[in-house]
Amino acid sequence: MTLTELRARVRQDLQDEDAANYRWTDIEVDGAIQRAVREFSLYLPLEQQTDLATTADSRDIDISSLAKRLKVFSVEFPLDYVPRSYQKFEVYMDTLTMEDEGNGDNARLRWGKQHTVDASSSTIPEQYDEVIVLGATGYLAVSASAYTVDRASIAGKWATINFLKWGQERLARYEQQLRAIRRKTVGVSDLTLEKSI
Residue 168 contacts by C-beta under 8 Å, 6 or more apart in sequence? Predict the structure, then answer.
């Protein structure tokens, strides 16, 4: 779903569809969606593959060009070996340090980056759209409970309690879904390749 579609879904779950009298502004809804997208990305980042040149007699590779990088999964160097030759490595800021020295040839990095959702596109796999909705609605409901604490409301004190409880329940389900996603996606690279050298 695009950001516009996700916003509509979030408003539907929050029963906040009266455009003339929204409880949450679009900026607030979009902020909650983007927060959920960032958190989702930590559990299931967008997989990328990039070849970067090594430097002769140096174990360091500049990885500053890997925008919105969350994690490097593997470094293959040298390339085209059978079986593949993977390096032990460590990452500090924008420098990746391999176990072996480079020779000027490319190393192949497989890495994860933050997902993006905007008005025209989304990198979130479709089957996980509702996870984003869960997180966004949970955050908005909890924020609404804090906002209503000292304000008069038709529902009285129950408005605050109900928002808080409903939001907490949704956030608990959201966190449970994120943990399930992580369990499904743990691979060899997560367990063995990124080690200190």
Answer: 138, 142
Q: Is residue 197 part of a domain?
A: no
Per residue of the chain (197 residues), what is the pLDDT tens digit? 999 999 999 999 999 999 999 989 999 999 999 999 999 999 999 999 999 999 999 999 999 999 999 999 999 999 989 999 999 999 999 999 999 999 999 999 999 999 999 999 999 999 999 999 999 999 999 887 655 544 444 444 445 557 788 899 999 999 999 999 987 754 434 433 344 34
Do residues 157 and 69 share a domain?
Answer: no
Give the single-character DSSP code of 155: T
Tokens of 37: 């997208």
- pTM of the shown model: 0.81
Task: Supply the angle between the helices 3-14 and 129-148 in degrees, to the nearest 10.
Answer: 50
Domain count for the chain, please give it: 2
Write the secondary structure of 84-125 as one string of H (helix), E (strand) and C (coil).
Answer: CCECCEEEECCEEEECCCECCCEEEEEEEECCCECCCCECCC
Do 76 and 165 lie in one domain? The reply is no
Domain of residue 87, CATH code: 2.40.30
Residue 158 token pair: 């129950």
Other CB atoms within a 10 A radius of the CB of residue 197 amount to 11
Look at residue 193 and tell me if it is in a domain.
no
88 and 135 part of one domain: no
